[in-house]
Amino acid sequence: MSITAPFARLLTPDLVPTAWEHDDLPALHDPSARQLLGQTGPWEIRGLTEGDPGFEDAAARGWLHLQLWYPLRGLSVLTPSLLTRVRFQSADTAGAVHEWDSVEDLAWDLPRVLDAPLPNLCLVRSLNRWMVDRPEAEVRERLLAAGDPRVIPH
What is the C-alpha separation between 56 and 64, in angstroms, rounded? Predict the structure, then answer.
């Protein structure tokens, strides 16, 4: 079984230590691996869409997520998925990686610890439900019914 792009580059045994080509971001946080879906203030919202290569594999395995990308600081925040141990995870070009259990904790730390403005978190929650939770549930249900071995229980 092969993993198709864009996740093929990302899903290596040593996800975090792998540097991004142009900065010091971990490969999992490389914004070029995702489509630009929109913007909220200075933050870009990035993710996979249903037509992207690797979308079905990511949905089946619980890897779908959104990325909030703050290009002014080279700061990436991923929404929870099995890739981030179901936690929010940030990485910046200085190599710092932070994790949070909730969007409230993330909202508290972004301006204070990471010196970044808050994105519209209501929009992020809504997009995560629509672009991650809904399609992941649909793909997983369809693949489970077909007995597809790619579906990872979570």
Answer: 9
